[in-house]
Amino acid sequence: MNRLALGASRSAPKGPLLITGLTLIPEPGVVLMDSALVIAKGVISEMGPSAAVQARHPEIEQVDGKGFMAVPGLINAHTHVAMGFFRGLGHGQDEMIERFFFPAEKSLTPELLAPLSYSYLYGGLVAGVTCFGDHYYFSEGVAQAMERLGMRGVVGETVADLGGAFPGRSGWDRWRKHIESWPYSERVTPSIAPHAADTVSEPLLRELAEYATANKLPLHMHLSQTRGEYQRVQQREGCSPVEFAERCGALTDRTLAVHLITSTASDHKILKDHGVTAGICPASQIIYEHLAPIAEIMRAGIPIALATDAAASNDTADPLSEMRLMALLAQDRGVPEEHRSPEEILGMTTVNPARALGLSAKVGTLSVGKAADIVFLAGDLSTEPSPKPVTNLLFSYSSRNVRHVMIGGDFALYNGRTTKVSEDDLMAEYQGAVAEIHRRLGGKPE
Ligand SMILES: [Zn+2]
Asked: What is the pTM of this model?
């Protein structure tokens, strides 16, 4: 029998594959020791104790997964993967969205978007991300980049008629047509992505919300993301950003409302009543302005999807480090244990974002019939013993332990290396696109 740690031939399973001996965390709150998975035609076709599954399937190619923890593919719910060219520049900036991002983003053109996406997508993949919820301009390129790496994604075109890098509705008109002739594999699906409450007018937000509802698409938007947004919406609309979004019909159980840093108790009641998922990006929020009132959001029972945001304000796409940060911040802020247990935190990168992004039937947990999106983490001397695997996942493991990442039954990462495309090619194309942006801006942004 082959060891899962060895044998490059495993990177492209041809027929069904049986992996035994795993420490399996099929969903938050469930740990199955010495367990096996059968993967066939892109989905999990069987799951159970190793010996029993092995006995039932002597005919299937077997791989020994002893020493590995297998968890559902991690979902990074809110990103702008093409913003790699801002990496490291967000620290110490004020109002970077208006003063810094929008002017530089005006130099973007469609052909740059795929290569600009490679750095953050790669950074997520090697850290166990199987799916990104992304939100940016010329997002056809972002979708193409996900396809090239073999990743899953829910991709939205940032739409804003009162601000943003490209104010107006042309992006939305283009995106709507693109959705209607969607050219990608089943792994990449669309979302509707208003930029924020201060940059989108009431008529346009109503139109976007109606389209999302009519077509059962996720609506993914920044909301109450800065003090400036809060003030501008108060001035223009006489209400909070959350109240404005509610008035426009933009808050439903398919809405992912991201940041909420200036949200209040009455906003939380509205969000809870409409079944909205809160997108929380702890590192990005702290670097940009300040952390959302997570204790109040968690106590209000609003489901949270954790995310990393973008290279400008984080600067990595690593959900394990974000989970650990979130667990510590929640503890520090006095959140009761039942709302911040390691299992609750794991749900914020698996079950909760899957639901908010409309992917619950396919991913978010490991169960028979679901897509085989699985992260295999190798335990080692530094992680032993692991008496509480979910706690250990957050506090003993890191992206360093991510060895293989399977997406839709295919290894997109094997032995820490990309399988679909060479890392050298990704690096060369990414660096070329970054250099082109710098050329257009007349130098590197500072
Ligand atoms: Zn964002």
From this structure: 0.96
